[in-house]
Amino acid sequence: MTKIFGHRGSAGTHPENTMEAYQEAIRVGADGLEIDVHLTKDGKIAVFHDETVDRVTDGRGHVKDFTMDELKKLDAGNHLSEEFKGAKIPELKEVLALVKEANILINIELKNVFYLEYPHLEEMVLKEVERFNLKKQTIISSFNHLSMRHMRALDSEIDIAILYSAKLIEPWNYAETVGATSLHPHLYSMTEEMIRYSEAHHIPVRPYTVNDEKLMEYFFQLGCEAIITDYPERAITIRSRWEE
Ligand code: G3P
Ligand code: MG
């Protein structure tokens, strides 16, 4: 059965990467959460998507220039609707506590891309996952494949996924070069061949961000290990129809 990961929680219905969005994904029965992480000025792991807070909060500036306490003062819900006014930016440990309690899966995407290096983010994230004893329920991913290679050097067991949006040649072989154990392709870089060969190499494929009903059905039928979607409730409804 294809698993369903709520992208940034349930970003299609709730303010992305907030506890409200994660609780919604859990409520509707998602198998896992996809979250994004940055480092704050005081070395805390903040759960947030963009490099700057401008798009989804009432603040301005780069996440890396805020302390965690300063980020906590921002409103991360009001931009979507008054109903979500007061939603906060979570710290990684809050989300891990929720994942532990709900006993679901978590995909932590490291946002150490472009000009943001975030030295030791890999070590810090791994330490937190271990502290919560969640290694078997965690997938670490990034568009920064050097970082994923570093993550593999730190830990030989944890599931590591490479994120990409290009049409790669033999990504199942490339994953092995990186030391990754899973593929997280953009949905437009998916091919049926990729599913077949990746399966043969025991490399799960989890496309993002699958919001369209027809595409959900297509990926369920292809036998993807999981999909990552902004609409976990919609995906679960379609999956249950598909299973009948
Ligand atoms: O992890 C899948 C997806 O979240 C990657 O892209 O930009 O939505 O973080 P983005
Ligand atoms: Mg992401």
Automatic annotation (TrEMBL):
<protein>
    <submittedName>
        <fullName>Glycerophosphoryl diester phosphodiesterase</fullName>
    </submittedName>
</protein>
<dbReference type="InterPro" id="IPR030395">
    <property type="entry name" value="GP_PDE_dom"/>
</dbReference>
<feature type="domain" description="GP-PDE">
    <location>
        <begin position="2"/>
        <end position="239"/>
    </location>
</feature>
<dbReference type="GO" id="GO:0008081">
    <property type="term" value="F:phosphoric diester hydrolase activity"/>
</dbReference>
<dbReference type="InterPro" id="IPR017946">
    <property type="entry name" value="PLC-like_Pdiesterase_TIM-brl"/>
</dbReference>
<dbReference type="GO" id="GO:0006629">
    <property type="term" value="P:lipid metabolic process"/>
</dbReference>
<dbReference type="Pfam" id="PF03009">
    <property type="entry name" value="GDPD"/>
</dbReference>
